[in-house]
Amino acid sequence: MNREDQLRQLRDRTNPWDIVVIGGGATGVGIAMDAASRGLDVLLLEQSDFGKGTSSRSTKLVHGGVRYLRQGNITLVRDALRERSLLKTNAPHLVHDLAFLIPCRNLWQRFFYGVGLKIYDLLAAGNNFATTRRISKLESIQQIPTLKPEIVSGGVVYHDGQFDDTRLLINMVQTAHEQGGCVLNYVCVDAISKDASGAINGVRATDQESDETFDISARAVVNAAGPFCDAVRQMDDPKCEPMLSASQGVHIVLPRKLFPGNTAIMVPKTPDGRVLFVIPWHDHAIVGTTDTPIDEVSLEPSAQTEEIQFLLSTAAKYLVTPPQKEDILSVFVGIRPLVKGDKSARTASLSRDHVIRVSESGLVTITGGKWTTVRKMAEDCVDRVVKEASLHAKLCCTRSQRIHGYVESDFDGAPRSFYGTDLALIQQLESETPDFAKPLHSDLTITAAEVIWVVRHEMARTVEDVLARRTRALFLNARAALAIAPNVVELMAAELGRDETWCEQQREAFRKVAQFYLPQSIG
Ligand SMILES: Cc1cc2nc3c(=O)[nH]c(=O)nc-3n(C[C@H](O)[C@H](O)[C@H](O)COP(=O)(O)OP(=O)(O)OC[C@H]3O[C@@H](n4cnc5c(N)ncnc54)[C@H](O)[C@@H]3O)c2cc1C
User: Fold this and answer.
1) What's the confidence (pLDDT) of residue 343?
2) Distance 227 CA to ligand 1 centre (A)
3) pLDDT at site 352
4) Is the CB of residue 159 less than 8 Å from the CB of residue 130?
5) Is the pLDDT of residue 6 over 60?
6) Which ligand 1 atom lies nearest to the CA of residue 28?
7) Cis omega (within 30 of 0) on the bond before 206?
8) Closest ligand 1 atom to Cα of 232
9) Which of 50, 75, 173, 307 could potentially form a cystine with 290 if both were Cys, beta carbons 3.0 to 4.6 Å apart?
10) Helix then strand then coil, % of the chain, to nearest 5
11) For residues 203 and 361, what is the distance between their CA atoms, to the nearest angstrom?
12) 3-state secondary structure (DSSP) of residue 453
């Protein structure tokens, strides 16, 4: 997968594309993968890097959503549990089973959550991960050695899926490409074009690297711009009413020593009614999330001091050593594209289900939903587009579509197994040049070979692409990522043939973006 080849394909195209997809997050990439595998000519355009938006900033759960069970949304939970199972089958190198403990203060809580989660198991109907069980105080502490003993009388353990969101996203981009799709990052859609009757017939887009503009014709245009979908809808109809209500969710990342063991904590109800997770991930611990309504959406949202304080103080109620601000290794913030409810609704109770709307001129907008359900969202969307634009396409086949990197064996937790079949090729680079095998930083696992690999094969164009989304260095330890950025710049410049001006611009750009992830720069 090479960006120059993809650009050439775009330039050489004389026929209209069947579908142009705007947005390279989970939703857009899912649609590109589905459309390409049905034999449609699909072009995906992402204004920044794949996953720069919400899709890199999730809680990393492939789940039915215990909180939706509490809201009584049985259909949503059942559908998501089915998708959880399909995703684990199709991307076993990336999705794995994780145990979650709900710490209970008394017998009533153990009974209540035990029954609720048995229903969760039943809804999975044959697609279960391990089954739910009630456990004693002693076993709760054995599972989570840093759990405060005085706050539990026992617990309920249930199972859900965990993944690396951008590793899955990049592997899905590769799968779409392997099926014949054309996929481009750093190409922004600036306008939507229409024919004399007012029907949409393409888009105008600009390559953010060269400023080259493209007038692209298409039989159908899909707006999968996530939190930005109202801006794209306004390109079609400047007077349209916004359909989204945005809220942001903050996560903090802590050192593993504060949270050893392989079981996550799920707090079903914080004092202000939210759900909170403490999750082991890539040998670190993630605590999240908040749910704060926001007025404006941005590609790099900032955490508020109160949100960090809330996460620290809630985690402190459960952990023997209360985490301090100085312990935080990274902070990341994602924006939920929630389909609007009535004005009085709190964002936490708005719909997480997806919505597809078709405008009068034919723009298909898809939004809402969640990472876990993108395959189904894409299936529904492509079915709708095929109907609206009278396209000839095969039936959806993504239920059994193996994702790039697929391995026969289940995830075994071995270091870097999330690269799947590509790991052997990265290791080959490392054995050819032993210097490439050394971690670039003592607190991170990333090697020079990984940098080279993702530049050559995964369309990483900037230092941020490498450190935030191809590897997760910036999300795991922002200070360490900042420290190795100059090294990564050198490696990338050699691969991409860039000069010193590019290197300086990259170092500066990464310094700026890292501020959003550094806890000491937030209040
Ligand atoms: C805090 C948080 C935690 C979450 N945790 C989970 C979880 O654990 N499990 C789960 O299943 N779901 C989770 N979700 C939900 C899930 O992450 C989202 O539903 C999903 O990532 C949305 O993907 P998307 O593609 O619609 O949006 P995005 O990922 O935001 O993608 C939209 C893309 O469109 C691009 N774009 C915008 N305008 C243009 C333009 N003009 N031209 C070209 N490109 C454009 C943007 O740059 C962006 O990359 C979470 C969400 C949040 C906020």
Assistant:
1) 47
2) 7
3) 53
4) yes
5) yes
6) 25
7) no
8) 41
9) 307
10) 40, 25, 35
11) 13
12) helix
Out of 115-124, 339-348, 464-473, which region has the weakest mean confidence (pLDDT)?
339-348
Cα 55 to middle of ligand 1, angstroms? 4
Residues whose beta carbon lies within 6 Å of some atom of ligand 1? 22-28, 45-48, 52-55, 57-61, 63, 188-189, 224-228, 232, 249, 289, 299, 334-337, 369-372
Q: State how far the Cα of 444 lies from the Cα of 455, in Å rounded to an integer.
A: 19
Handedness of CA 73, 75, 79, 84 (dihedral sign): positive
Q: Report which protein residue has its CA nearest ligand 1's atom 48.
A: 53
- CA 304 – ligand 1 centroid, Å: 20
376-401: per-residue pLDDT in tens? 999 999 999 999 999 999 999 999 99
Q: How far, in Å, is the centroid of ligand 1 from the Cα of 495?
A: 30
Pick the residue whose CA is nearest to atom 5 on ligand 1. Answer: 58
Mean pLDDT of the 17-40 span: 98
Residues 6+ apart with CB under 8 A from 157: 99, 100, 101, 102, 132, 133, 134, 135, 143, 263
Please name the residue that has the structure tokens 């395959």.
Answer: 375
Tell me, in angstroms, the distance from the centre of ligand 1 to residue 25's CA: 5
pTM for the model = 0.96
